[in-house]
Write a structure and sequence with these properties.
171 residues, alpha+beta, Alpha-Beta Plaits, elongated
């Protein structure tokens, strides 16, 4: 076996491992982005617990096939980089959407979420979701509201009695 083939197998294994361990991954066409924009984007990815790397399309295709994700070859044309989101599903797509809004140079090809391919519009929808912490806070607020209402109803007779006694005491 040639050294080149061994190197390619290692890269396919690397991509496969990163895709299977990532909460989400976004594949992008990065044509036109300059070095400074690329540096800032990579820095934001690292700060959010993500990773960004350029791979050959054929190697990405093999890694996707290893994971059972098919029919993605039509998107794998031109320059392709993968942004891996390791901490949560939405942070890296949010950063990508911000970069797209600023530069108008990057284009989302598709994404991988929960072992399935999702189209670019689904990646954009994912990026527009609130963070996990905000969603949990919203859920807790929703769950607490019925308890608050029950407490108000239970306290109403006592409050009425106190108000009546206060009125009698003032006379």
């Amino acid at each position: 076996m040639s050294a080149n083939l061994d190197a390619k197998k290692l890269v396919v294994k690397e991509i496969t491992d990163k895709l299977s361990n990532a909460k989400s991954a976004t594949l992008v066409d990065f044509r036109g982005i300059n070095v400074e924009e690329d540096y800032e984007m990579r820095k934001a990815f690292r700060e959010s617990g993500g990773d960004y790397k350029v791979y050959k399309n054929r190697l990405i295709s093999r890694a996707l096939n290893n994971l059972g994700i098919a029919d993605c070859d039509k998107f794998l044309e031109g320059n392709t980089a993968i942004a891996f989101s390791n901490d949560d599903e939405v942070s890296i797509p949010k950063i990508l959407l911000d970069v797209i809004d600023k530069t108008k140079k990057i284009k989302i090809k598709f994404g991988v979420l929960a072992g399935k391919a999702i189209d670019s519009s689904s990646v954009e929808t994912l990026a527009k979701l609130p963070s996990k912490e905000i969603l949990i806070a919203m859920l807790l607020g929703t769950l607490q509201e019925p308890v608050r209402k029950v407490m108000r109803v239970l306290n109403a007779p006592t409050r009425g009695l106190v108000t009546a006694l206060d009125a009698v005491a003032k006379k």
